[in-house]
Write a structure and sequence with these properties.
Length: about 525
């Protein structure tokens, strides 16, 4: 015969569960007394409830039902299953299963009713126990109690189970776990990638919550967790067990897991949202160092057609930087400053004068003029646009999860609050973008033949800026021979500016005149 042994991973309060070793001893003793030899012992250390997969139980049942073994011994009916009659009816009169504690035999006609009754009693007990546990946890969560182990950087009060930042410095270190959390949010929000930050932590000898090295996904796990803003969360389980979601009470409201006085010490919502946008790629942070501004008209605009390197002013001419630094360029470009600067200015004036109101170039010029003259406002617009993209993706994710049944079963109560939150976030983002995008940008001074007048009235710095409004780069080829007169049409290709929304597309205005 076979033995089926089971003990829950967590022993409920008030439930005296016999250990697996004690169950096995009783099973072998029963086998000896009744003339059986134990063939196989099936051991389980998990729940017997309906939503739990039990491969060993299935194998033991398959063996006895298929006649591989004449009998199966189980310590008690509640160790066998807690699904009630549906679990025991298939074996009654068909396979011998011994329930030792109740002294019942599934092949004994007189025990049929008792087995069904006891199985239903076990089911009712589990239902009641599960209801009590859920009710207790729901009440505790509605009070904002953190029921699990406190996340990294936080500590739970022993009495209230409310969270607060862990500011106790680590042994031998001058920083606390909470200082690490603050640094993660601030550096990612400032544009540092999760990989770069993990590498930086490891180089500095900073350990993760597990005492191991940091990885990009461990940085991400902290960034996406709402608990660092003071919100109580639940884990949806399954494939999304690493993506905790907000806990909503019966009124559909999110619940705080920190005391009101501690809330101001948590991560601000704006910082958290910005860090998440940067992490997801919805917001690009330009960290390119800029030391002063270039002094010459075309510095930073010219490129050598052969090697692609920039051309810098040396003396009276712009020269290929690769060649100037001693590198190997097969056809290094060089051009007199007095020849190319007037030519590019004339090209710029002609292009501005021939542009229509809806020309993509003028849209790009307007965007860049706004960024130049309203830097604070432009930054706000870009952040609002990034938030709009993140909000749209958030609503799309809700619909994708909903379509796959994510909000079914026990998670059904989170469906409407999650939908409402995603839609409200998108609405707020749309209104913010509309609010910031309402004012017109006036570039009429560059249109209708007025560009030349604006150019002549500008100083050297403004002239560089004006060229930059419409020109991204100028590619210069090597002169066909020494002493040959400069011909801009054959040697220069102008890459005109494109609107931000079209930067990824190949420019239709790239002119390489022949």
């Amino acid at each position: 015969m076979d033995l089926l042994l089971r003990k829950s991973k967590i022993v409920r309060e008030g439930e005296r569960a016999l250990s697996l070793r004690a169950q096995e001893e009783r099973g072998r003793h029963w086998a000896d007394e009744h003339g059986y030899r134990v063939r196989k012992v099936w051991k389980e250390n998990l729940s017997a409830w309906s939503d739990v997969q039990r491969p060993k139980y299935d194998a033991a049942m398959g063996a006895v039902l298929n006649g591989e073994v004449p009998a199966l011994w189980v310590y008690a009916l509640d160790r066998f299953s807690r699904k009630g009659a549906e679990a025991v009816v298939p074996i009654l009169g068909k396979a011998r299963v011994i329930f030792d504690y109740e002294r019942l035999d599934s092949m004994d006609e007189r025990d049929r009713r008792w087995i069904i009754d006891r199985a239903e009693n076990a089911r009712e007990y589990s239902q009641r126990l599960s209801y009590n546990v859920r009710s207790t946890k729901t009440r505790q969560r509605n009070e904002g109690r953190w029921l699990a182990r406190a996340p990294f950087g936080l500590v739970a009060d022993k009495e209230t189970r409310k969270l607060s930042p862990n500011r106790v410095k680590l042994r031998g270190k001058d920083y606390s776990p909470w200082a690490i959390v603050l640094r993660i949010f601030k550096e990612i929000a400032a544009g540092t990638s999760s990989r770069a930050l993990a590498r930086k932590f490891n180089e500095e000898g900073i350990k993760s919550a597990t005492g191991r090295s940091w990885r990009a996904d461990s940085i991400r796990a902290i960034l996406i967790h709402p608990v660092y803003e003071g919100w109580l969360t639940v884990s949806p389980g399954g494939k999304s067990h690493k993506a905790p979601t907000h806990y909503f009470n019966d009124a559909g409201e999110r619940v705080r897991c920190v005391e009101p006085g501690v809330l101001k010490s948590m991560i601000p919502a704006k910082t958290a949202e910005r860090a998440r946008r940067v992490l997801s790629g919805h917001q690009i942070v330009d960290n390119t160092p800029r030391v002063g501004r270039a002094a010459h008209l075309l510095t930073g605009k010219l490129r050598c057609a052969e090697c692609g390197y920039s051309m810098t002013l040396s003396g009276k001419s712009y020269n290929c930087q690769m060649r100037a630094n001693g590198g190997a360029c097969a056809a290094p470009a060089s051009v007199w400053r007095d020849a190319i600067e007037p030519y590019i200015v004339d090209r710029w004036l002609a292009r501005m004068g021939n542009a229509d109101d809806d020309d993509p170039l003028m849209i790009a010029v307007a965007q860049r003029w706004q960024a130049l003259t309203r830097p604070t406002e432009t930054t706000e617009i870009r952040e609002a646009a990034a938030e709009l993209k993140a909000a749209q993706d958030g609503l799309d994710k809700f619909h994708a999860d909903d379509a796959t049944g994510f909000y079914s079963g026990r998670s059904a109560k989170y469906r409407i609050p999650a939908k409402t939150k995603a839609e409200e976030r998108l609405t707020a983002a749309e209104e913010r973008v509309k609010e910031l995008s309402g004012g017109p940008v006036d570039i009429t001074f560059l249109m209708n033949g007025m560009a030349r007048e604006a150019w002549e009235g500008a100083d050297a710095a403004l002239r560089r800026d004006l060229l930059g409004l419409g020109i991204d780069h100028v590619t210069v080829t090597k002169a066909p021979g020494q002493g040959v007169r400069f011909d801009g049409k054959t040697r220069c290709g102008v890459e005109w500016a494109t609107p931000e929304s079209e930067e990824a597309e190949e420019s239709a205005d790239m002119e390489l005149a022949a």
